[in-house]
Model the fold of this input.
Amino acid sequence: MKTWLDAWPVFRQLTGSDPLGRGVAARSKATEQVVSRTATADRVVTSVCPYCAVGCGQRVFVKDEKIVQIEGDPDSPISRGRLCPKGSASKQLVTSPSRVTTVKYRRPYATDWEDLDLDTAMEMIADRVLDARAKGWQEQDAGRRVNRTMGVASLGGATLDNEENYLMKKLYSAMGAIQIENQARI
Done:
């Protein structure tokens, strides 16, 4: 006959076959019904942590097109499945209810910021890049043909990997920019 004492986890731990409390002694009806978020995911996407230049590998677990968990990728030669505290909390970067999803913009001479949707902001950026390219365009310099713009420059950050910097170099070169630098470390 079971008593209240048998249901007490500490008693089960001390008198049972699990003195460290890491197995049967720690189990309850509630824990038997718990299913991990990774077990119910529809798919797993590999990614890279966005926080620093190390480039730790991440596994992003997705269910119903929503991120349910982010963990370190054990197949990553860089981090071997480990993440720092910022990388471990990166799920909050995309799922937090306080995440900013609009672009803050203050028009010239305005005193207040306004929210713009991303499509509008991207169109404004594209228009300004093309305008800067056109205004700074040089066809010749001291009689030599150069076909370049001095109105656009790029400085890549350390969180960009070599492949991203390669693509940026191609993009800016195609636009005619010649002032292109980066500090890729991975």
Observations:
- The domain at 43-95 is CATH 2.20.25.90 (N-terminal domain of TfIIb).
- The chain has a mean pLDDT of 87.
